[in-house]
Design brief:
The chain is mainly β and 142 residues long. Helix content is 5%, strand content 40%. The chain has a five-stranded antiparallel sheet. The protein has a four-stranded antiparallel sheet with strand order 1-5-9-7. The chain is globular, with a radius of gyration of 19 Å. It starts with a strand and ends in a 27-residue tail after the last strand.
């Protein structure tokens, strides 16, 4: 699939796959940003995308940053709709006790292109019966 992208910043780096089998593309910071403990800052990619109808972009934390540096994406996964044409950026929060610096060109998040479908709801008087039924969290085991 080909995605049209529009460069908004001269420092923007085209998103890349980290390996042949990678499911997500890495996003690169266009600015140097310091995130102090407890702070929320947005990290810019420098790109706007034209996502085809029927698809969406999902932005996730990079596992190393989340696990080792305790940097999280506030609305993870961040969903970018096919009709959005603004810059792709991510709100990051530092939940560690140490400041973290994203330098220009650092990988800060990963994104996946996923299909999305529109549905219509059909209001009914009852639902089909399943073995689980109305069992909620933990009802099928730990």
């Amino acid at each position: 699939m080909e995605i049209k992208i529009y460069k908004l910043d001269e420092n923007a780096i085209v998103p890349t796959y980290g390996s042949d089998g990678a499911a997500c593309l890495d996003l690169y910071a266009v600015d140097t940003v310091i995130i102090r403990p407890g702070d929320v800052r947005y990290i810019r990619s420098g790109w706007a995308f034209s996502i085809p109808k029927g698809y969406e972009v999902q932005i996730y934390p990079r596992s190393g940053l989340a696990c080792k540096k305790q940097l999280i994406i506030l609305n993870s996964p961040c969903i970018i709709d096919s009709d959005y044409r603004g810059e792709i950026y991510t709100y990051m929060k530092n939940i560690s006790d140490e400041s973290f610096v994203f330098s220009q060109g650092d990988r800060y998040a990963q994104m996946a292109i996923r299909s999305s479908i529109h549905v219509e709801f059909n209001i009914v008087d009852d639902l089909d019966v399943t073995e689980r039924g109305i069992g909620g969290f933990g009802s099928t085991g730990v």
